[in-house]
Amino acid sequence: APVIYWVRRDLRLADNAALLDAVGRGVPVIPVFILDEVVEGQGAAPVFRLGRGVAAFAETLKGLGSRLILRRGRALEVLRALVAETGAGAVVWNRLYDPASKARDSAVKAALSDDGIAVQSFAGHLMFEPWTVETKTGGYYKVFTPFWKTVRGRDVALPLAAPSALPAPQDWPESDRLADWALDAPMRRGAEVVARHMVVGEAAAQDRLAEFIETRVDDYDSARDRPGVEGTSGLSENLTYGEISPAVCWHAGQRAMAQGRKGAETFCKELAWREFAYHLTHHTPRIVDRNWKEAWDAFPWRTEETDAVRRWKQGRTGEPFVDAAMREMYVTGTMHNRGRMIVASYLTKHLMTHWRIGQAWFEACLIDWDPANNAMGWQWAAGSGPDASPFFRIFNPETQLAKFDPKGRYRRMWIAEGQDDPPKTALSYFDAIPEHWALSPADSYPDRIVDLAEGRQRALAAYKNRDF
Ligand code: FAD
């Protein structure tokens, strides 16, 4: 009887435990991707990017004499139908850890097992299963540094080899056509603008890692904080769809460390931040949509879409760091980490707006959107998260820009207004935005919507009035 391999955030052949297990059974393997309510419920950019990733993985599988079957519907119903159509005796997948996926997967596992189907899930989206990292008293970690001290010396299993062929069934079950799913549709600017900045697929992700280690890891410690230079790996979009495994990145970092390459340990540490985000999400799932610290429910955040929020989204707050970063995200589908910290702090503190509003906009725009990293990032910036001390830190976007973009490169790269000869990047924002925003690079750069000192005082006063 064939085995069904349920493809999710693991669009790769290498270091793919579920796929390797399926191939090792010596029976036909039927890879299936299911467009279900968990996947479809995501923002425009993640759905758009996913479509490109699925297309690339389908091609990869074709190269191995296999196929990727596409089906739409509730996962359990789709899998049951496939089992009935193909006579499959087993279903395998690689585990996910966000609350929506976990709830779905455990229901699917229970129901299929009751049907007499052998169901098995595997590790691979993370290096450290969230329940295997414990404090001395048997709890979970709420702060990154002790988490890091616990995992940094651990042996991470060496990546599994990619299968060289997938046994195919005699008859393939029917598949939807990817084009009919119209995953591009919700993102008007996707194909024309954002796609140009994407690096899609397993081979491209591996090249990206190799290139980063070869040319940029030495300067990573300092360059990673400069939004105007290409100092980071850019791998988040690939990691979020599993086009490369974290263990492959980790081992590349460890090898570079062994060669004495500066910056390699910091790279591994950043990968551990991703693990930490999932550790928190597994142990406290509320982090994805509620204040991690419940006391923050009383914080007087605005929850309406004010004019200030609209201008924040459009990159027209009059605050160059904020605006450059918001435009970068609108055009490229990603934003530099320093920019993410600044725009999130600005929205939640200077504009006193609920982090959920920012989180939703990020989910609409980010091709590297990740349920755990995004939620942790927002709650860290807002002060409501577990590792957000001091919660009263309020970044000053002006001094931050002077410090991390001393030559004004990032600003020039993304803000056309006021430049005689703006670069393509800055102009591309005006090509990307909808007409009804009625903006032009010839406009004058907007005035500040909030005075930095006043905004800061207002946020501090709100903190003081509460007993956190
Ligand atoms: P590199 O510097 O090359 O780091 C390598 C990898 O380590 C990254 O690809 C990522 O997987 C991981 N990593 C690095 N920094 C962090 C971090 N602070 N937290 C968790 N993992 C990290 N990251 C996402 O992948 N998706 C998101 O939706 C997301 N939303 C964020 C929202 C906010 C408000 C903040 C402050 C941060 C967010 N991050 C998110 C984390 C971080 O900004 C990105 O992972 C990083 O900018 C990706 O660029 P890179 O791949 O070049 O990173």
Automatic annotation (TrEMBL):
<keyword id="KW-0456">Lyase</keyword>
<dbReference type="InterPro" id="IPR005101">
    <property type="entry name" value="Cryptochr/Photolyase_FAD-bd"/>
</dbReference>
<feature type="site" description="Electron transfer via tryptophanyl radical">
    <location>
        <position position="355"/>
    </location>
</feature>
<dbReference type="GO" id="GO:0003904">
    <property type="term" value="F:deoxyribodipyrimidine photo-lyase activity"/>
</dbReference>
<dbReference type="InterPro" id="IPR002081">
    <property type="entry name" value="Cryptochrome/DNA_photolyase_1"/>
</dbReference>
<keyword id="KW-0285">Flavoprotein</keyword>
<dbReference type="GO" id="GO:0003677">
    <property type="term" value="F:DNA binding"/>
</dbReference>
<keyword id="KW-0274">FAD</keyword>
<feature type="domain" description="Photolyase/cryptochrome alpha/beta">
    <location>
        <begin position="1"/>
        <end position="127"/>
    </location>
</feature>
<dbReference type="InterPro" id="IPR036134">
    <property type="entry name" value="Crypto/Photolyase_FAD-like_sf"/>
</dbReference>
<feature type="site" description="Electron transfer via tryptophanyl radical">
    <location>
        <position position="301"/>
    </location>
</feature>
<comment type="similarity">
    <text>Belongs to the DNA photolyase family.</text>
</comment>
<dbReference type="Pfam" id="PF00875">
    <property type="entry name" value="DNA_photolyase"/>
</dbReference>
<dbReference type="Pfam" id="PF03441">
    <property type="entry name" value="FAD_binding_7"/>
</dbReference>
<keyword id="KW-0157">Chromophore</keyword>
<dbReference type="GO" id="GO:0009416">
    <property type="term" value="P:response to light stimulus"/>
</dbReference>
<dbReference type="InterPro" id="IPR014729">
    <property type="entry name" value="Rossmann-like_a/b/a_fold"/>
</dbReference>
<feature type="binding site">
    <location>
        <position position="220"/>
    </location>
    <ligand>
        <name>FAD</name>
    </ligand>
</feature>
<dbReference type="InterPro" id="IPR006050">
    <property type="entry name" value="DNA_photolyase_N"/>
</dbReference>
<dbReference type="InterPro" id="IPR036155">
    <property type="entry name" value="Crypto/Photolyase_N_sf"/>
</dbReference>
<feature type="binding site">
    <location>
        <begin position="232"/>
        <end position="236"/>
    </location>
    <ligand>
        <name>FAD</name>
    </ligand>
</feature>
<feature type="binding site">
    <location>
        <position position="267"/>
    </location>
    <ligand>
        <name>FAD</name>
    </ligand>
</feature>
<protein>
    <submittedName>
        <fullName>Deoxyribodipyrimidine photolyase</fullName>
    </submittedName>
</protein>
<feature type="binding site">
    <location>
        <begin position="368"/>
        <end position="370"/>
    </location>
    <ligand>
        <name>FAD</name>
    </ligand>
</feature>
<feature type="site" description="Electron transfer via tryptophanyl radical">
    <location>
        <position position="378"/>
    </location>
</feature>
<dbReference type="GO" id="GO:0071949">
    <property type="term" value="F:FAD binding"/>
</dbReference>
